[in-house]
Amino acid sequence: MVLAGPPEDQGGVDALSLVAGGTDIFRRSRGVLGLVGLPIALAAAVAVLFLWVGNKQLDSIEQRRVNPEFITNALAEHMALAFTSTILVILIAVPLGIILTRPGARAVMPPVITLANMGQAVPSIGVLVLLALVWDIGFWPAIVALVAYAILPVLRNTMVGLQQVDASVIEAGRGMGMTKGAVLREIELPLAVPVILAGVRTALVINVGTATLATFVNAGGLGDIINGGLVANKQTVIVVGSVLTAAVAMFIDHLGGIAESRLSPKGL
Amino acid sequence: MSLLDYLSAQGDRLLGLTLEHLGIVLISVGISTVIGVALGVATYRTEGPRRVALGVTGIFLTIPSFALFGLLIGPLGLGGGPAVVALVMYGLLPIVRNTITGLRSVDPAIVESAQGMGMARYRRLFRIELPLAWPIILTGIRVAAVIIVGIAAIAAVVNGPGLGKDIFRALARFGTPTAVPQVLSAILGIIAIAIVIDLAFVAIARLTTSKGIRA
Amino acid sequence: MTTAPAAAPTDPMIRLERLTKTFPGQARPAVEALDMDIAAGEIVVLVGPSGCGKTTTMRLINRLIEPTSGRIFLEGDEVTKVNPDQLRRRIGYVIQQVGLFPHQTIADNIATVPRMLGWDEQRIRARVDELLALVGLEPATYRGRYPKHLSGGQRQRAGVARALSADPPVMLMDEPFGAIDPITRDRLQNEFLRLQETIRKTIIFVTHDIDEAIKMGDRLAILREGSKIAQYDTPERILSAPADDFVADFIGAGASLKRLNLSRVRDVELSDWPVASVDSSRAEVLAALRASDKGAVLLLDAERRPARWVSGRELQREDGPLSEMGLPPEALVQPNATLSDALNEMLKSRYGCATVIDGAGVYQGNLDFATVSAAIQEMRRDARDRSRAEADEVHAAGEAGA
Fold it and tell me: ipTM of this predicted complex?
């Protein structure tokens, strides 16, 4: 089952891990172009957007949303939401993944993986709204919702990454007299890093996307611009907000991709 | 007001919304399948087009759904139209990717022997390659369906149909006793749809995969 | 010898004329100006070191690879430009990996070409059963099975049945037994040779294994790089008179031993070993033994099937009925076994002797080292005489032309 089975039963595809990596096609070219090609393209798109907006006569409602100060503020809120939640996700999910893969706790792995897959079916907007209703609106409830929603890919990838380390390598380490902790630090974790990083990148991209919905629970972010345009029925505002949001999401995915390949141990 | 009270009072209306939700998901998955499989079939043999197909559909998934819905209001207005277009775009990557993976995983010896027996290109595709790739393609469609079920909830921001409407209505009723049961029932309805679709795919896979290649 | 042997009275089944294939981006052609005639009903084995272009050559014939230049004739018609799919339906194709369609039953696999040719279902069903029986797969059992339920050997048989389905005059076989364990391979080779006696197809067979080539081929084409023919002749003559050092090196050491693969038990004169009925008296058996120069006697049962081997010493020392004395028969071979197989059995046997029986198990005679040695001598003499005669002929023709 897609919802219940491990990813290898699904032809290597599952919904969560697909969200990240869309911009990898731009990093295929080697050298500097691979690194700056996408940012340049995105900057050009945003420049075109601003030229278009600059030539328009904006009314006062539009001006309230489309001005440098408001946009910078929304962007800062958005980044705070996305990065705070992602850091919390790493702090929670990686240690939890390590604990759950230690001998003795292995029995809990299948149900956790099933739960992680089931989580794909839960709508992110539902989690945000539910938390706002039962707890509060604002930054921290939004963070909790983002963390709850993005914790699954990191947890699952940490467990899968540790689990797929060749048992003979671990045994070789133990045979040389390494302690369990040393084996974990020096063998298992380094070998699992690429898989864990892929999960972290996925979480980051999910968080950037879900943070656009934070506007509905008064937690700000770029969604404020789009939603403002929707509520006031101002096309220009909606377009500015949407294009900026899409550009930011692609840029973050791009950075995530660079980080992923830079931080992975060489030789893997 | 408890969830059960709410469900019994609003059952019919919830059922209607659930069917609406299911409907837009099925329509989107259907269109996405037709486009995605066609794209996969058209590009699986050549490196360049293959990368472009995967790259472009991959970027669709990177774009936050709220932004994509927003971008589509301009050309398509509000309602079901932009919702279906956005959902189709989100469903493409898993279908294109699995179509390509599936077709490329067909043993070349099998394709060669079909060719050696005088099977023409299209016959080979429809009789040999696609049936053999089918389990993997079907998994891609299933993943697309699961993605679409969840994102469809956000379609309500552009007046799209489905259970997402109730999530936003609940938000608007902030502080009233029905707000929490309303959002909970919408979430549960969406999860139920996902599970039903997933189970339906298990059945479809059983019925449409040859016994010779079933695990 | 770089050209085909003297033209057969009838048209060849396949004729290749200056056939050339140059792959894009490669300076040297993979197949260069190849001329070759293949006679109807023969198994021609293309054999050569890896990379010599033998598989490319074979795939040029059914145009899975399109030739750069040159012409291909099938039954006298040029097929270089006809629709390749139509052409391939007239040519059976068997490859090492078999390539059975895993999502179709064995029956559907075999029915592929007949369906494309538009046969009616009844005819197809009958043909499928006929072919399954022909390759030794019980139709009722295997018809509805899927390839994954078959062993490697069974799959290869089903692959052969599929290639034969529309009764094509020509079959191409690319290392068909290459991926099969040695014991099964040997059995499949023998089965296939027996099958060929009934179907009489024109077969192009590609292998890199010289022993397999010698065993399977009516004629071998030893190829060197660029698919150039180093020698195209019968296995006997290639073994006794290799055209050059390349061929001699390729055949390798032990040409005499390899020649044993060429002769069958039925072709040699069997030697005399004493036999007696298992029901006869001990004195009669002893008398039979003394009348010969051998150390043991073979006892036959009422149906003249080998029952026991008994030595003279056992006859004198042991009591008890003859039917429990000595050893049960060992080293049994059939007339269509090769001398190589027979020799192998002999080496394992107690008396250095293989017992020949027919299909019903009835005793035909015995084969020992002296028989094999005599057969080798004779083959060598024949081959030498023939190449000398041919050399004279060529010489004479040269003088006549001058």
Answer: 0.85
